[in-house]
Amino acid sequence: MPTPLPPDWSDRLALDRAHIWHPFTQMQIHEADPPVPLVGGEGCDLLLANGERVLDGISSWWTCLHGHGHPRLVSALERQAARLDHGMFAGFTHEPALELVARLRPKLPPGLTRAFFSDDGSTAVEVALKMAFQAQLQRGEKGRDRFGALRSGYHGDTLGAVGVGELENFMTGLFRPLLLACERLEVPEDPRCEVQPDLTGWSERLEGSRQELRAFFSLHGGRLAAFIAEPLVQCAGGMRMWPPELLQELRVQCDTHGVYLILDEVATGFGRTGTFLASDQTGVAPDLLCLSKGLTGGMLPLSMTWATEAIYGHFWGEPASGRAFLHGHSYTANATACAVACASLALFDDEPVLANAALLHLAMKSAFTALAAHPAVRQARVLGTIGACRLVDPATGQGHDPGARFGWRLHRRALDQGLLVRPIGDCLYLMPPLSTPPARIAEAAETLLSLLDESRVDSTWPAVH
Ligand SMILES: Cc1ncc(COP(=O)(O)O)c(C=O)c1O
Q: Domain 71-350 classified CATH 3.60.21.10?
């Protein structure tokens, strides 16, 4: 049983129930199963109002990089907020934004020279899509009225981003009448990431996918303004790890057909896959790069869309030319968020952040190898610090009935055991802060194994809400 909440939380939860609409939530569930009150964050743990401490196994939606409340990030925030909290960025500039581009630029592919700021991953993607479309028009390519994207991709929740994503059940299907034109390409999952890979026939499959990619571009290449992809891991699509060779082929085909390549590293950036950017492992440089989440180490919302000089050049002109990129948000380049992002990047330079990520990778490998032995688990896989597997009903070897909400129930049970996981459909994954001690990952695997055992004994476990 979970530890009860202190009494003063009952009024607060009533206020929540009366007025707050939570993200990605069918609010009816909170009638019986209220949201879990958070009161603190310390390192890789979140502190709950009931006094319990849970490992943030998913980095609070893949944002938290160095642990919660990292003292260098906190002091950067305090210092900057006291000096210049925020100022409009059209016609003005400030030190934190300048320091941020100076720190980040050398860590990116050399061709990316121009940074546009916005607030979150979705807006970084919106900016990239609009830039690509307008750049194509302004270089005289008028027939490029659509985008290319991968099946099972996710790029955010604003309408442009939804249009290039493909999470059929709750998003793309519903909003279809409002969405951008988008052609989608399927890529296979890469069995080489699995902890027990079966590589039979893999090279033929990979070659087949390469041919499909080429055929896709022969058919659609002339109509595409840009192709967008999450490099190496399609995160919200269920931690689908896909082959680097196909990203390399994508780059070749984009070049051949005059299509801009947008890489969305909102989730994969900042060491998550073991390298600073996931695309660093492939040698592929995009024309447009989207960054957010880990940009501020997960402390404040901020995002950037980086563009090549060539794209930037297509917007150059006299004020009356109509070529400017007329886009911006109230909080563009928020000075406090930029200062925190600088502190986060400084940690990459001053502390062994990527070396810790390499240790975390090993811990993830052991954890998912242990999980792979459980009959309720299939397709355990690891890339960098991301580990994932598919949950099945051991009785049938098939996925759980979605109505049984197994993932949600596992999430709730795990919280009572000191672990925050939040499966995506039947995908159970861990993506903790890069600073998480490896021993905590071993503990998390033990917790998950015992919960999976428990779920077999008691099929009503725990209540469905
Ligand atoms: C790859 C990717 N792109 C974009 C987004 C959207 O970011 P945000 O939720 O900050 O708008 C996400 C969010 O999970 C993401 O995983």
A: no
